[in-house]
Amino acid sequence: MDTQLKIGFIGAGNMAFGIAKGILSGNVLPLNIRVSAPSSRNLGRFQELGIPVTHSNVEVVCGSDVVFVAVKPHLVPRVFSEVSQFITDRHIIVSVAAGVTLATLEELLPENAVVIRLMPNLPCVLQEGALLFTRGSRAKDEDAALLRTLLHRCGLVEEGPEAWIDIHTGLSGSGVAFGAGRVLRESGKHPAQLRSEVCTPGGTTIYGLHTLEQGGLRATTMSAVESATERAREFGRKSGSKK
Fold first, then answer.
1. Known binding-site positions
2. Which helix (H) or strand (E) holds 68?
3. Which pLDDT belongs to residue 9?
4. 8 close to 34: Cβ distance less than 8 angstroms
5. I need a surface site. Which of 14, 72, 152, 207 has the fewest CB within 10 A?
6. What is the mean pLDDT of residues 173-194?
7. Which position has the higher pLDDT, 64 or 170?
8. Is 124 exposed, middle or buried (0-12, 13-18, 19+ CB in 10 A)?
9. Binding site residue list for NADPH
């Protein structure tokens, strides 16, 4: 991979941050990455890594070879209407927007645009992620190979059909919130804070957690631990009575 490859992020949320941290652990220098967001709220943590930031999406596109579009799904049409005239066939556009299909992405972009749809998950921050991507109609083998090389430090990277993306979103993208032991331990954050970071309002993860709560997962888990504990005590009492 060209060490001078320029990487851009439109959007500065948790997914963008996780991918950026993974990329930085490879051969990409912080100065070769640029991140844009409409406000400064999430940009500080990128600056702490030495990554230049801006409020201009056009600046990111014009200065990048690979552009990760990591915004909420409903913002994708607005972002592309702003930057599409600056996208050329030298760009690889990687969409991280949940639920936005390749057909929609290619419809919103110029005819010659190379598009890849990617679904990562938050453990990318710890280089323990699970990332699935699928290629658009104009993405070549070398584009897929470049993306794999770029993301390999983020965790497991696989290519598959687009039908798998939504399944991956529910299982690995959202599923991290249902059992994120290492993220919790190494981040040092309170579980409630980690949950709020993973759960985009109205997104897939919060819907999954709502279903778990409806099914009484918390109470069931507590009961399971209590039952196992009591059973262990029973074994102890039985072994004690045999002495």
1. 10-15, 57, 70-73
2. strand 66-69
3. 98
4. yes
5. 207
6. 61
7. 64
8. buried
9. 57
SS3 128: coil
Helix count and strand count (H, E) for the chain = 11, 8
Number of Cβ within 10 Å of residue 125's Cβ equals 22
| Mean of the per-residue pLDDT values of the chain | 83
All structural domains of the chain, each given as residue ranges with its CATH number in brackets, are 7-161 (3.40.50.720), 173-240 (1.10.3730.10)
Strand order in the sheet with 92-95: 53-54, 33-36, 7-10, 66-69, 92-95, 114-119, 129-135, 155-159
| E strand spans, 78-204 | 92-95, 114-119, 129-135, 155-159
The secondary structure of the chain in percent helix, strand, coil, rounded to multiples of 5, reads: 55, 15, 30
241 against 191, higher pLDDT: 191
State the average pLDDT over residues 114-141: 88
CA distances from 19 to 41, 45, 108, 207, 210 (A): 18, 13, 24, 24, 27
- In the numeric block, the tokens 């056009």 are attached to 58
CA distance 150 to 153: 8
Note whether 68 and 7 are within 8 A (CB): yes
Burial of 220 (0-12, 13-18, 19+ CB in 10 A): exposed
Which positions make up the binding site for NADP(+)?
A: 10-15, 70-73
Q: By the 8 A CB rule, do 117 and 162 touch?
A: yes
Cα angle 139, 110, 80; round to 5: 100
